[in-house]
Amino acid sequence: MDNPISILFYLKRVKVNAQGLAPIFQRITINGRRVDNSTGKFVDPDKWQSEMSKMRGTSEEARSINGHLDNLKSKILNVEKNLIKKDIPVNFESFKNELTGKKERERMLIPIFQEHNRKIKELVGQEYAPGTLERYETSLKHTKDFISWKYNITDINIEKIDHSFITEYEFYLRSERKCANNTAVKYIKNFHKIINNVWPMDG
After folding, report:
1. What is the CA 194 to chain-centroid distance, rounded?
2. Residue 179 located in a structural domain
3. Fewer Cβ within 10 Å of end Cβ, the chain: N or C?
């Protein structure tokens, strides 16, 4: 698997301080985009090993500085692992959000469905009949039951809902729920309405 993230430690020799020490910077490159940050550490340029991105030797100072750099590198790699574990594409924005603790807004199906039904409920008697709300509440229950039955989960990101999902859902309604043809079609239609409010699906 291609690794979209690379990490480099380097000296900013033009910023040598009064003690003759140069600051160590960290460069993170993600799919061609890069960000440079200070590590907060300084080193004698003569003791810096550029090809290894670390301080030379085994002195206490070298162990301390190199240990700090290793920790910074581990933090970056853990961010990448977390994104992969969450099935989030590793790119500059997702990495930055994960690193800074800013949560990317996940568009999960059940909260979207619940919010839709809440709006219907508030408009019962004005724009919707009580029966309409009841149908959507039943449709929500069937949707919850389906994703639990099929995927053994309680919710799903809407970006993972595709034609195969819809086909399996309709099969579930007909086989497990024993819905008649017209009833199954109505539930699928309700489901499409929820999804299409967020983004248009093909077909």
Report:
1. 22
2. yes
3. N
Query: What is the total count of domains within the chain?
Result: 2
Q: Are residues 86 and 63 in the same domain?
A: yes
- Mean pLDDT, residues 171-198 taken together: 89
Contacts of 174 by beta carbon, 8 Å cutoff, 6+ apart: 181, 184
Tell me: the pLDDT tens digits for 3-12? 578 899 999 9
Q: What is the pTM assigned to this prediction?
A: 0.48
Are 185 and 140 in the same domain? yes
The dihedral over CA atoms of 177, 182, 187, 190, expressed in degrees to the nearest 10, equals: 180
Residues 59 and 70 sit within 8 Å (Cβ to Cβ): no
Please report whether residue 10 resides in a domain.
yes
- 108-126 in b/e form (b: 16+ CB < 10 A) is ebeebbeebbeebeeeeee
Amino acid at 44: D
